[in-house]
Amino acid sequence: MKVDDKNLRPIWLDENLKTIKVIDQRLLPHEFIIVDLNNVDDVIMAIKDMYVRGAPLIGVTAAYGVYLAALNCPDNQTANGFLTKECDRIKSARPTAVNLAWAVDKVFSKIKKAKDRQEKIDAALKEACSIEEKEVENCRKIGEYGLALIDEISSKKKGETVNVLTHCNAGWLACVEYGTATAPIYAAFEADIDIHVWVDETRPLNQGSRLTAWELGKHGVKHTVITDNAGGHLMQHGMVDMVIVGTDRTTYTGDVANKIGTYLKALAARDNNIPFYTALPSSTFDWNLKDGIKEIPIEERDPDEVRFVQGLDHKIVRNVLVPPENSPAANFAFDVTPARLVTGFITERGVCKAAEADILRLFPEKRV
Amino acid sequence: MKVDDKNLRPIWLDENLKTIKVIDQRLLPHEFIIVDLNNVDDVIMAIKDMYVRGAPLIGVTAAYGVYLAALNCPDNQTANGFLTKECDRIKSARPTAVNLAWAVDKVFSKIKKAKDRQEKIDAALKEACSIEEKEVENCRKIGEYGLALIDEISSKKKGETVNVLTHCNAGWLACVEYGTATAPIYAAFEADIDIHVWVDETRPLNQGSRLTAWELGKHGVKHTVITDNAGGHLMQHGMVDMVIVGTDRTTYTGDVANKIGTYLKALAARDNNIPFYTALPSSTFDWNLKDGIKEIPIEERDPDEVRFVQGLDHKIVRNVLVPPENSPAANFAFDVTPARLVTGFITERGVCKAAEADILRLFPEKRV
């Protein structure tokens, strides 16, 4: 996507074919730093410490991680054993996003039968690139299908501004291009629909105010940053036409794991009869889980992410402590929105209800 | 209440009887500064800029503001004209808390008939002190009635920890002693009930993580700071037994205006069958308003309160900018929780349902 008139992705392979380049998303919007990932340890650190984040981008980064593992793989009988271990290490970097294991397994399945080291390397690179391009194409299609929904609201409002609320960052920074939740927004913007986005700041790490606001601003999309507390009030007063969020893992029954706080917005949307959509590529469906609240593992992260807030003061990025030094804090990173609160899913194959039968209508090959 | 073994209130009259002393709550927990209020302008600034906040404390501060106006009042025929203007200025400092106008009118009604300057001063001081002590007594009783509710949960849980979630600061810092939402918590603590408080940080101004956590910590009450996004997840997983919040204005029909985000917690409590209580002295009821969502004025404050976060960095309190410099922000300070989501009110006269008939059962003198 465009950043100051330059096309940019949050991840790319360096010309040397040995280094993965990523934007360090921890420092946006106040610092723009590109980081080199040269081996599996770098990849794990980048995922765990959230240089990269967002389910699709975690998947793509992990896929390139398997490629880096193949580059460092011994060419002997134990190669697959080595690669299995490296893949397991990558998969355990974070627990909630299902794309992580999905992407690693997808690349590994292509390379385990390869005859020698070079063939493994070639196969890994090919598959990682293919996963990346497939995510781009999926996001483009999500934008297309989501645009129809926004267009319908715009028509009903006779061209008045369409107000979309989003939580966290499910933008191109979380994917590769377009984003998931933002894909319909960018598509509507390109189609000259008058659109405005309420951006939940998304504590604790403020991916909304730091990343979504940055993305939208750089692209020229109208937006307003609000606290996570504000959405209910806006919905009560007719200031939100639609909610679109991303997801880190969605069960085949329609339960949506996404950034902590998503569930509260879904409750408010339901209470005010506002459509609540989740945009996702099929790689984010977990075809094995039935009950999201009981079964999706919810990551508990360092309480310091709650205690400290990062921002700019006199041109220096600082982390300031908000609560008293000795007050404990807890940091649950995700919550699960039950299917009953979700109006629908926007996928690369179209829009469906948050219900097993309708999900399988779009993805019939997943029927068991 | 106790702070490092010293008894403290957030407001008191100096020995010279000419100065009101208040804790500057904008700087807690990292700096503890006492500020002098010497005239009506100081009082308005302290209320508007939130040196003092919380409906009962705003009321008490405003009452002392009328006393300061009386001290500066000319002793002639225009005295009541002067005082009316000063009272109007104080009343317009903030729009949402009903205690502000209530307290100002109460003091003014006592002084307008006084014969001369000294009599007005004496009457104003007497009434302001009386309002202060009445709020203390009200909060003590709220604690008593709320304790019974917590005790019941503790018995059902056979003495296991009772987990209370609260939003913003409705503690003694927002009142004078005990607090409203915290009064039952302090009472339970004193009664040796095993109690733990989930403290919503309460963006944008973080009154939860800055003030409630500080209060509870100084008193020795177990607590954990969480993001405003986390409460729904905790409730889904059985980690919250009860929600208690304060309010800035509550209609006689039971609609509750409170810090922005309260409505979202009420929705989550209802969705998970968790009791949701509002603790309030009768001074916070607005006996004239019927429909809270339509009629209670919601203050929109400076967007910089959303854009900047205050905290400690290397022993210096700093304000750091979180979103991109040029991203707009909006700052709605309160929302309204409809009566249908409120389990009950804890008042100085007992517990009642959030419904006109039951509220008037406790306050029959308000029947028209």
Which helices and strands, and how do they pair?
The structure is a homodimer of 368-residue chains.
Chain A: E1 2-3, E2 6-7, E3 11-13, E4 20-23, E5 34-37, H1 40-48, H2 55-71, H3 79-91, H4 98-111, H5 117-156, E6 162-166, H6 183-190, E7 195-200, H7 207-219, E8 222-226, H8 231-236, E9 242-245, E10 249-251, E11 256-259, H9 262-271, E12 276-279, E13 285-286, H10 292-295, H11 304-307, E14 308-313, E15 316-321, E16 334-337, E17 344-347, E18 350-352, H12 356-362
Parallel strand pairs in A: 6-7, 6-9, 7-8, 9-12, 10-13, 12-17
Antiparallel strand pairs in A: 1-2, 3-4, 4-5, 10-11, 11-16, 14-15, 17-18
Helix pairs in contact in A: 1-2, 2-3, 2-4, 2-5, 3-4, 4-5, 5-6
Structure write-up:
The structure is a homodimer of 368-residue chains. The first copy, chain A, is of the alpha/beta class. The first copy, chain A, has 2 domains: 2-134, Four Helix Bundle (Hemerythrin (Met), subunit A); 144-366, Translation initiation factor eif-2b, domain 2 (Rossmann fold, 3-Layer(aba) Sandwich). The first copy, chain A, is 39% helix and 19% strand. The first copy, chain A, contains 12 helices and 18 strands. Chain A has helices at 40-48, 55-71, 79-91, 98-111, 117-156, 183-190, 207-219, 231-236, 262-271, 292-295, 304-307, 356-362, and strands at residues 2-3, 6-7, 11-13, 20-23, 34-37, 162-166, 195-200, 222-226, 242-245, 249-251, 256-259, 276-279, 285-286, 308-313, 316-321, 334-337, 344-347, 350-352. In chain A, strands 8-7-6-9-12-17-18 form a 7-stranded mixed sheet, with helices on both faces. In chain A, strand 1 and strand 2 (6-7) form a beta hairpin. In chain A, helix 1 (40-48) runs antiparallel to helix 2 (55-71), helix 3 (79-91) packs antiparallel against helix 4 (98-111) and helix 5 (117-156) packs across helix 6 (183-190). The longest helix of chain A has 40 residues, at 117-156. Chain A is globular and about 65 Å long. The interface between A and B is large, with 64 and 64 residues.
